[in-house]
Write a structure and sequence with these properties.
The complex is a heterodimer of chains A (about 130) and B (about 110). Chain A contains four helices and no strands. In chain A, α3 runs antiparallel to α4. Chain A is mostly helical. Chain A has helices spanning about 25-55, 55-65, 70-95, 105-130. Chain B is about 85% helix and about 0% strand. Chain B has four helices and no strands. Chain B has helices spanning about 5-35, 40-50, 50-80, 80-110. In chain B, about 25% of the residues are buried. Classes of the chains: A mainly alpha (about 130), B mainly alpha (about 110). At the A-B interface, α1, α2, α3 and α4 of A face α1, α2, α3 and α4 of B.
Chain lengths: ~130, ~110
């Protein structure tokens, strides 16, 4: 059966990711997804470190040694930035779900705020790690 | 599974778990980054406080639920091959269940 004409979208399909100019709230959304995936992948490591750190004084010292190594600090900085971005963008989404900040101007403003707060949190965490 | 974690129910769980994660993450960041425990007894003692142990158990459950819905959304969006999608979803579920049970075991032995 042919689809009825009014159901066929006339909008052009244009999905060249390198040429799409994503508005800021779109970047915050993508960042929320990418950071969520990264945090998910890091979860088994975090559970492992929790177990090691609570296994006894030796395990605690071992976990601290692992966490203060250079690769762990670099990875930790990225993951903590991701965590802060995910946290603030997530709070923004919860507020949007409550219909708070839906008008475009406000949505842009809160997108900026989430991006900046996540970055500030990441920088703070980087400072604490270093 | 489909009834348990899909559609509106998954959406609701994602937000409820997100709410607890947003409330308890600052507690963990404060303890780990702002006032890190000096030695094992301090760290163990903090985790063993009933409020913290309970908060961590709920955190672990919320985290795995949250990661399941989010990871599932990503796989459904980007993996269209049914077999590959099923395999990845199974792997994700296995990893998250292992994390939840492993984490609960750690907290149980506190």
């Amino acid at each position: 059966m042919e689809p009825r004409p009014h159901l066929v979208s006339q909008r052009p399909v244009f999905l060249d990711l390198l040429r799409i100019r994503l508005p800021l709230p779109g970047w915050v959304s993508i960042g929320h997804r990418v950071s969520g995936a990264a945090l998910l992948l890091a979860l088994p490591l975090a559970v492992g470190l929790l177990g090691l750190s609570l296994s006894g004084p030796e395990g605690f010292a071992e976990a601290r040694a692992i966490l203060s190594s250079l690769p762990a600090r670099l990875l930790g900085m990225l993951l903590l930035w991701g965590l802060f971005h995910h946290l603030f963008a997530g709070i923004r989404f919860l507020l949007l779900d409550l219909h708070w900040g839906l008008p475009l101007a406000q949505a842009r403003l809160t997108a900026w705020a989430a991006l900046a707060a996540g970055l500030a949190g990441g920088l703070w965490a980087a400072g604490r790690l270093w | 599974m489909t009834r348990l974690a899909s559609g509106l129910r998954a959406w609701t769980w994602q937000r409820l778990s997100g709410l607890w994660l947003a409330l308890f993450t600052p507690v963990l960041l404060w303890r780990l980054l702002w006032a890190p425990p000096a030695d094992y007894p301090a760290w163990h003692g903090w985790v063993a406080r009933p409020a913290i142990t309970l908060g961590l158990i709920l955190y672990l459950a919320a985290l795995c639920m949250h990661a399941w819905v989010g990871g599932r959304d990503i796989l459904m969006d980007y993996v269209s091959h049914p077999g590959a999608r099923l395999a990845l979803l199974g792997g994700l579920a296995a990893v998250l269940i292992a994390c939840a049970l492993g984490g609960l075991g750690i907290l149980y032995r506190i």
